[in-house]
Amino acid sequence: MSAFSRPVLLLLCGLMLLTVCIAVLNTLVPLWLNYQHASVWQVGVVGSSYFTGNLLGTLLAGRLILRQGFNRSYYLAAVLFALATQGLMFSTDLTSWLVWRFVAGVGCSLIWGVVESALLCSGSATHRVQLLAAYMVAYYLGSVVGQIYVGLLPTAVASVVPWMVMLIVFAVLPLLCTRLPRLTQPEHPVHVGKMLRKRSARLGINGCVISGVILGSLYGLMPLYLSHSGTSDADVGYWMALLIGAGIVGQWPVGRMADRYGRLLVLRVLVFAVIVACVALLSVGHLVMAPALFLMGGAGFTLYPVAMSWECEKVCNEELVAMNQSLLLSYTVGSIVGPSVAAALMQTYSDRVLFVLIAAVSLVYEEKRSPPQTVGGINVTLGWLISFCLPPRYCSITLLLPGSGAAWRCESGKRYWLGLTRQGR
After folding, report:
1. 340-396 pLDDT per residue, tens
2. Which residue blocks in 153-201 are alpha helix, DSSP H?
3. How many structural domains comprise the chain?
4. Which of 91, 226, 407, 413 is 20 to 30 A away from residue 236, measured at CA?
5. For 146-201, how does the pLDDT look when each residue is reduced to its tens digit (9 = 90+)?
6. Are 100 and 88 in contact (CB under 8 A)?
7. Which of helix, strand or coil describes residue 123?
8. Using an 8 Å Cβ cutoff, are 339 and 217 in contact?
9. How far is CA 204 from CA 304, 323, 384, 403, in A?
10. In a 10 Å sphere around its CB, with 0-12 CB exposed, 13-18 middle and 19+ buried, how is residue 165 labelled?
């Protein structure tokens, strides 16, 4: 039986249209504030207001879904988002920007909670992997379309907002043609706090926090960084499209790597790739901008689905909505803290501090995880680096993990796994 039923396909179509609006506004709101001569810290505060709304919406999503069902919750979230988008036309001071972006954050978070929970509850564990991958592709594809819109069409507030409101209305129409299954009330309610306290959930939750810091900072402040560098609005849209497009390209290969080599190892490799991309963006040459942004998008935008799939495999069906809430909550906390801290540092020092912060947070995630097993003092994860640094001939090394069945062997410059059990995935 196919995982992509008619309700699922219609839900993904609606999500894609909504994501176009979200992407356009996330890129243009910092630019609109810049045109109104807002300071960098004010732009960061408005971005944090949006993510604070995400936080509130995440806390409300589970209870709303259980009481109203998926369809009604989706309609309510779309109405909130449409009202907040229309309100931007009447924003004249910082307070009004904060209020409308907060309401938009609540609506967007409710949309994500409804869509993710509906997809996770629509199939078996095998189908969930396919549905989650389709969800991320639809989300990032809508984001790319939104960035292309920014590059091709007028970007004035009065020109953009009416089209965005119209798209939100169109995004509601697919779900008027179908009915998503209603969740049954569990006998023993599962709370988000219980999911957050799970010892086995720490890795996924920490990964979602780091993903929130990275993506929140990139969405909220990357357009401002490019604008201050002399990039036109059209080119800002193209650079953001490249960043998000890399996330689409990375979904399938990263998912396959996670299935083959284990999600723990892939999470660490993705975080290391983010650090490498930040170092490249801090270099003086502009030639590295395109490959560095591609690497940043391919690694940063795939952290969340890998961490999410790791955690959702560990809970039963009755706990899926609560677990999804806890992961969204963790992501939102990172999204709130990231832009605020980054904006303050950029205001005080330089715009380039944005990449220093992202690299530093990623490095902390690498170091604060549970200590990895080593052989002779060599971290087995470093096999990915060692394999590329070995001489081309007459050199071999084998790294073993006692008790886990894992082995990494590099010989004559070749790299391959000898074997890896599923323990610790």
Report:
1. 888 888 888 888 889 999 998 888 776 655 444 444 444 443 343 333 333 333 334
2. 157-176, 192-196
3. 2
4. 91
5. 888 887 878 888 889 999 999 999 999 988 888 877 766 656 566 666 666 666 66
6. yes
7. coil
8. yes
9. 8, 10, 22, 23
10. middle
Q: Give strand pairing partners of 94.
A: none
Q: Which residues fall within 8 angstroms of residue 231, CB to CB, at 6 or more apart?
A: 239
The answer to whether the beta carbons of residues 387 and 415 sit under 8 Å apart is: yes
One domain, residues 307 and 382: no
* Residue 107 and residue 247 in one domain: yes
Q: Alpha-carbon torsion 188, 189, 194, 198, what sign? A: positive
- Joined together, the tokens standing for residue 410 give 């590099």
Please give the Cα distance from 97 to 90 (Å, whole number).
9
Q: Is residue 392 domain-shared with residue 355, that is, in the same domain? A: no
Structure-token pair, residue 397: 């090394």
**Do residue 151 and residue 281 come from a single domain?**
yes
Assess whether 262 and 388 both reside in one domain.
Answer: no
Q: In 321-334, which positions are buried (b, 16+ CB within 10 angstroms) versus exposed (e)?
A: bbbbbbbbbbbbbb
Q: What are phi and psi of 359, to 5 degrees?
A: -65, -40
Q: What is the C-alpha separation between 71 and 66, in angstroms, rounded?
A: 11
* Residues 108 and 251 reside in one and the same domain: yes
Domain of residue 340, residue span? 6-181+195-368
DSSP E strands in 306-421: the ranges are: 374-375, 378-379, 396-401, 406-411, 414-419
Q: Under a CB-based contact definition with an 8 Å cutoff, are residues 321 and 196 in contact? A: no
d(CA 263, CA 266): 5
Choosing from 325, 349, 368, the residue where a domain stops is: 368
| Same domain, yes or no: 261 and 150 | yes
